[in-house]
Design brief:
The complex is a heterodimer. Chain A is of the alpha/beta class. Helix content of chain A is 53%, strand content 13%. Chain A has an eight-stranded mixed β-sheet with strand order 3-2-1-4-7-6-8-5, sandwiched between helices. In chain A, α1 crosses α10, α1 runs parallel beside α12 and α9 packs across α14. In chain B, strands 2-1-3-4 form a four-stranded mixed β-sheet, with helices on both faces. The chains are: A alpha/beta, B alpha+beta.
Chain lengths: 406, 218
């Protein structure tokens, strides 16, 4: 039974690697064209105790080359000097959200009510955008079926191990979003910088206030109602990411709980003919990828525990004699090759090589340098275990229906 | 309408390519299975040939009134080492499930026969020649049995320290020859070790106990 799953996971992983590479090299006819300069953009910046970063965020927004903008900061119950700092900026509207403590969605909805722009940009209060970020995003809205456009996210605080690890993750995430955008299955609008049609968001009822991942929820809602989400790779948002174990853990568990909850909320899309490739391919693939990661990590953990058990058993018998090298046989090259299950190893090796190619393309596509580094090694070895633990914790908390907190 | 790719065509092409790579892997895998079987067959044939050669040489020396015992020391040790290597390779393939099915059973059966044959030769040497005092152990194990695994580690240590010759036999392997041996030594459980052809120790036997037993024998 386990062998069957190993074969299935290895086949489907290979299939996905090939599929995404083909998507990468397949040309599509449509081009966004030029932006209409008349579209006004309301930029919503929800802020909760952001005195350290809010000034730089607003400065970057005001430095945008696209000038037809309205900036609204929603102070979501900050107890620090966030509001005072915002007040110092001319031309920035400040809303003090009365529903303090509910979450980001409530702040966004408060801003949505006051928005006068045709387009609605959401920018996190710890994010800075490139000067041409908005200009780059606008042309995609020439297509009336496009409900939202997202940007490439780069990491600002690349000053520690955790953020360097997440850098690889963000690069791959951006690349996968580019491919999904091409396939018309992109289904996330990150908080760093996403631009929506204001009227559409209002028509769909605004942001879900009972949701801990409102960015995923609104994206799935857009997809549910048949709207496209696109990514503009050259529009860059620089954001801060968690820089310690605890905050990374909390963020990921929140994200994954949001994924589980929202997938359940939009379960009607699963295999639905009406939702086309999104329902019949992307959502099942999301499930498969999650299952494959959990299965692979469980299998590796089982293997490691089993091996550890035998080492312990050997140690109990031989004690420190276990370190005597005469017990171990160094195989010849021929023996080493014959000791491998080539039937399984071959497709896995091809998948690995394709993954390296994808990693290379992902870096190249957003002009990021890549090298063989300790963080890359950890990203491919230890990080999947950590991610699986995030997922298991998220599943556990969701199954207990423990309180979802932002 | 948003321009989108013809995903059905993409899926089809990707599936075909994946199948091709998978089938290539399977074909290469089959070739490697063949290589493994061939390697073991060659080693077993070589061992068989060397054993036959030794037996004929011994017969020759016996028939022509020469000392057959001096020959034994060197040649039997070589045969034993060679067989030990085959055993380790078989165990490695078995634990990684790299050899399965009929071919594997045939090879294992042949290996078992050679083990018993060499064990018999050593018994004959022990009875008729003054041999070195290296312990000879017949070890019956069950796969996936914790005590058998531990006994295996203890015997590894014994091989290392006392230069013992160990014949490891899967107690559950279905073979008429094995049934005869099991019946002779009355083997009912695993692990069981037979020390120097006649002392039976059932259950997990510690290294100290084995060493003491061997010293007492000597």
């Amino acid at each position: 039974m386990i062998s069957f799953f190993i074969w299935a996971v290895s086949f489907l992983s290979l299939f996905l690697a090939i599929f995404w590479i083909i998507v990468l090299y397949t040309k599509i006819a449509s081009a966004p064209g030029k932006a209409e300069a008349s579209k006004k953009i309301t930029i919503l910046v929800p802020a909760l105790n952001e005195e350290q970063t809010i000034a730089r965020t607003i400065t970057s927004l005001q430095a945008s080359l696209y000038k037809n903008i309205e900036i609204i900061v929603i102070n979501d119950g900050s107890t620090d000097k966030t509001a005072e700092i915002v007040k110092k900026f001319r031309g920035v509207k400040l809303i003090n959200n009365v529903h303090r403590g509910i979450g980001k969605s409530s702040a966004l909805n408060a801003g949505l009510k006051r928005a006068t722009g045709e387009l609605l940009a959401v920018v996190d209060a710890d994010t800075e955008i490139s000067k041409d970020a908005l200009n780059k995003i606008l042309p995609s809205f020439n297509n009336p079926k496009v409900g939202a456009v997202i940007s490439t996210i780069k990491i600002k605080n690349l000053d520690n191990f955790y953020s360097r690890l997440q850098r690889i993750e963000y690069i791959l995430a951006t690349f996968s979003r580019v491919l999904m955008s091409k396939l018309d299955t992109l289904h996330v609008t990150p908080g760093a910088l996403s631009v929506y049609r204001t009227s559409l968001i209002s028509k769909l009822g605004g942001f879900d206030e009972n949701n801990i991942t409102e960015d995923l929820e609104i994206a799935l809602r857009l997809k549910y109602y048949g709207y496209a989400i696109k990514i503009e790779q050259n529009s860059i948002a620089y954001t801060n990411v968690p820089s310690d174990f605890k905050s990374l853990w909390n963020q990921r568990v929140r994200w994954f709980r949001g994924f589980i909850y929202n997938t359940g909320k939009y379960r009607k899309m699963f295999l639905s003919k009406e939702h086309g490739i999104m329902g019949r391919f992307q959502i099942p693939i999301n499930f498969f990828t999650l299952a494959a990661i959990l299965f692979s990590v469980s299998l590796l953990a089982y293997g490691a525990i089993r091996e550890g058990y035998f080492i312990l058993l050997k140690f109990l018998v031989l004690r420190w004699e276990i370190l005597d090298i005469s017990y171990y046989h160094l195989p010849s090259f021929r023996e080493a090759v014959l000791n491998v299950n080539i039937g399984l190893f071959f497709p896995v090796a091809i998948t690995f090589l394709l993954s390296l190619f994808i990693l290379h393309k992902a870096h190249k596509s957003i002009n990021e340098r890549w090298s063989i580094s300790p963080s890359l090694f950890i990203y491919f070895t230890i990080y999947p275990i950590l991610r699986s633990l995030h997922w298991l914790t998220a599943f556990y908390k969701e199954s207990l229906r423990s309180k979802r907190r932002w | 309408m948003v321009a989108a790719l013809n995903y059905k065509k993409l899926i089809l092409v990707s599936l075909i390519l994946s199948f091709l790579i998978f089938i290539s892997g399977l074909l290469i895998g089959l070739t490697f299975d063949e290589l493994r079987t061939n390697d073991l067959t060659i080693f077993l044939n070589e061992n068989e040939f060397q054993t036959e050669s030794y037996l004929i040489e011994r017969q020759f020396l016996e028939d022509f009134g020469q000392d057959k015992c001096s020959l034994a020391q060197t040649r039997v040790v070589a045969l034993s080492d060679q067989l030990g290597e085959i055993g380790r390779t078989l165990t490695r393939y078995e634990s990684k499930r790299l050899l399965t099915g009929e071919k594997y059973l045939q090879l294992k059966s042949k290996y078992l026969i050679f083990e018993i044959k060499l064990y018999t030769i050593l018994k004959e040497l022990n009875d008729n020649c003054k041999t070195e005092d290296k312990p000879i152990i017949l070890f019956f194990y069950d796969t996936n049995d914790q005590a058998s695994i531990q006994q295996g580690y203890i015997l590894d240590s014994l091989v290392n320290k006392e230069k013992a010759t160990v014949f490891s036999i899967d107690r559950e392997f279905n073979d008429p020859l094995l049934e005869t041996v099991k019946h002779y030594y009355n083997i009912t459980k695993s692990p069981t070790v037979i020390i120097n052809f006649n002392i039976t120790k059932e259950g997990l036997t510690s290294l100290a106990e084995l060493t003491n037993q061997i010293k007492n024998e000597a």
